[in-house]
Amino acid sequence: MRVGCPKEIKNNEYRVGLTPGSVREYVAHGHEVLVETGAGAGISADDNAYRAAGAQIARTAAEVFAKSDMIVKVKEPQPGEWAQLREGQILYTYLHLAPDPEQTKGLIASGVTAVAYETVTDDRGGLPLLAPMSEVAGRLAIQAGATALQKPNGGRGVLLGGVPGVLPGKVTVLGGGVVGLQAAKMAAGLGADVTIIDRSIPRLRVLDDLFNGRVHTRYSTVEALEEECFSADIVVGAVLIPGAAAPKLVSREMLSGMKKGSVLVDVAIDQGGCFETSHATTHADPTYEVDGVIHYCVANMPGAVPVTSAHALNNATLHYGLQLADKGLKAIVDDQHLRNGLNVHKGKITNRAVAESLGYEMAEPKAVLAA
């Protein structure tokens, strides 16, 4: 199979779908790899590094899309890329379709077979291709929030760790999954007063044991959300319903009860955001203010640290990517976890959460693949 890797074109996105190390693995499996010139510049991997790994270098993205049987990316295809996808081609990348009806229409019209990193599963019920970027985003959320909290950046002017004689800043984390755990680790490491809110009591028990009392845990109720958000300096939105739009946990009305200059960091923005007032921002212009509360809603947070992120992502995606390259559609037929990752095939939506979020009829993956 010919595997193609175009350069990412989303605003300030420096990651790359295939590192030179991953290219070597595809080549070792007998595949051709076509990489757009400059695709790895953001991780300090030049064209010569890709050539040494066995890749061919394409002058344009159009050449990559036209000549490749499978496209490996990081972020969802942009409008100019939808038109270059075609039936019989596999797209392997993050998609986050639930809050993005236009992209969904574009993929349906193309006829492409689209496998989304964020809905591929594993034997433990986890999301192994989402987890590494969730780890990065959770840790970055505290860095970003602490920066936004500084007075010159519009924040309250609070140091998260405090100093002797002065109380530390307060961080509330909504959601105790991978993002929430990593955010809490970073915040607690800086010396902040941290509370995690989740609706799973078993998960709260696990978190309580992990932190050994250094982090507070609360069961998620309207009262708990209000109390913790109103007292917080930073609120991190870290909720996830796989494939579906994120629930809106913080309403516009609730902002009036929050501290002026406090910060909301919406890590769920890829899935539409978990704050009613959230809208996607970029690294070029990451924050905005609503009712005196600073919002940080960058939709590709891990893109700010592409060397770490690209290698972590490739470590996770390589196994399934090689299956797709080795076996084509048969890999999806044979592997339940890849079938869970299938979101679109020949104009049909094949993921239930995406279909329900956008009002489409869901087509069973096995049925459409057999057809």
From TrEMBL:
SUPFAM superfamilies (UniProt xref): Formate/glycerate dehydrogenase catalytic domain-like (SSF52283), NAD(P)-binding Rossmann-fold domains (SSF51735)
Keyword field contains 4Fe-4S: no
Catalyses which reaction(s): L-alanine + NAD(+) + H2O = pyruvate + NH4(+) + NADH + H(+)
Domain Alanine dehydrogenase/pyridine nucleotide transhydrogenase NAD(H)-binding: 149-297
Pfam families assigned to the protein according to its UniProt record, in alphabetical order: AlaDh_PNT_C, AlaDh_PNT_N
Gene3D superfamilies reported for this sequence: NAD(P)-binding Rossmann-like Domain
Enzyme class: oxidoreductase
Domain Alanine dehydrogenase/pyridine nucleotide transhydrogenase N-terminal: 4-137
An MF annotation (GO) of this entry: alanine dehydrogenase activity
Family annotation (InterPro entries): Ala_DH, Ala_DH/PNT_CS2, AlaDH/PNT_N, AlaDH/PNT_NAD(H)-bd, NAD(P)-bd_dom_sf
EC number(s) stated in the UniProt entry for this protein: 1.4.1.1
Keyword line: NAD, Oxidoreductase
NCBIfam families, sorted: alaDH
Membership in a protein family: Belongs to the AlaDH/PNT family.
Name of the protein: Alanine dehydrogenase
Gene: ald
